[in-house]
Amino acid sequence: MPEFNLELIIFSILTLFMLGGAFTMISAKQTLYSAFGFLVSMLALAGEFALLNSKFLAIAQVMVSVGAIVVLSLLTILTINTKVENLPKEPYKYLWIAFSLLIVSPFTLLLYKVLTTLPAHFAQAQTITTKLVGKTLFSGWVLPFEIVSILLLVAMLGAIIIAKEKLKGENS
Q1: What is the rounded distance in angstroms from the CA atom of residue 135 to the CA atom of residue 142?
Q2: Residues 98-155: pLDDT tens digits?
Q3: Enclosing domain of residue 109
Q4: What DSSP string runs through 115-160?
Q5: Do 95 and 53 sit in the same domain of this protein?
Q6: How many domains does the chain have?
Q7: Are residues 112 and 161 in the same domain?
Q8: Is 23 helix (H, G, I), strand (E, B) or coil?
């Protein structure tokens, strides 16, 4: 009887969730379903980080991607309330997806080859602790971090203002 590797099974399940969420994000007609697909993909990625025993990256993934970006996207999508008839027609959507996969596949294989031939180099890398990441983030990268947060806030406000102007024009 073959031996089951629990980590490989969990990794495979998380990968299926990630790919399913990514496919939903790309192929869904409603933006709300795309945002939920993105949510599933980001949670699966956080699970894979946790499976790799990288607790900091898993928590950061949940807090930043799920807790901030997805919630901001959902808030914006629900505020705009896009109707199906206003969405653009995309007759060649799946053809473009297949073409993109065809273009990206060689680069993915090249990246896989590079990453599998250099495990000794990565084993000798310096250990990065959460203290070092926090010190770096809040000393040298605090200004770009704050600029990105302000940029996201302005983008959300802009989307709300545009949606309100469209609603005001429809109600007149």
Answers
A1: 10
A2: 898 899 989 888 888 877 777 666 666 677 788 887 888 788 888 888 898 899 999 9
A3: 91-119
A4: HHH-HHHHHTSPP--HHHHHHHHTTTSHHHHHHHHHHHHHHHHHHH
A5: no
A6: 3
A7: no
A8: helix
